[in-house]
Amino acid sequence: MNRILILSLLSVAAAGCATAPKPLRGEFAAVAPEQSALSGQVGGTVRWGGRIISVDPSEQQTCFEIVARELSSGARPVQAVDHSLGRFIACRSGFYDPAIFTNERDVTITGRIVDFETRRIGEYDYRYPRLAAEVIYLWPLRVAQERIYFSDPYWPGYYGGWGYRAPVIVRPVPKSEPTPPPSK
């Protein structure tokens, strides 16, 4: 009995562990973009992620401006609307389509800090760390889900038997289309 309990607990614990995708694994400096901009240290290899602000493709490379977010144990940026770890710029050779890499997408980037660049945000001069990106990992869009509980008198848990709840249907919530402005 104890062996079965231990094995089931181990399988649950193993299922709960999240690992980063293979291209995002490795040893990285534990510094956030805002700390890097203040310290001015160049040359460290980092793994940063966040939400894309803009994409600027040129002949040789594509540069991304990103609002940094905390990363989960699986290296995916955590959804946070009221907190950021600063901003950074990541450039990589080749063309990355701005129609795919839009401002609602999350990315995780590994690379080396090569220098710093000052750009204006409104009236503020902001100092961005600039990465020579090695990996640009575009995460799939998060799909909101809706849980529908229903009651079925023939379900064993309906009358309190077996300790189960009613079955659950999980389905994606459709994105609402933007409504056009009223015509005048």
Automatic annotation (TrEMBL):
This is Slp family lipoprotein. It comes from Denitratimonas tolerans. PANTHER family: OUTER MEMBRANE PROTEIN SLP. Residues 1-20 form the signal peptide. Transmembrane segments: none annotated. One of its GO terms (cellular component) is outer membrane. Keywords: Lipoprotein, Signal. The keyword Signal applies.
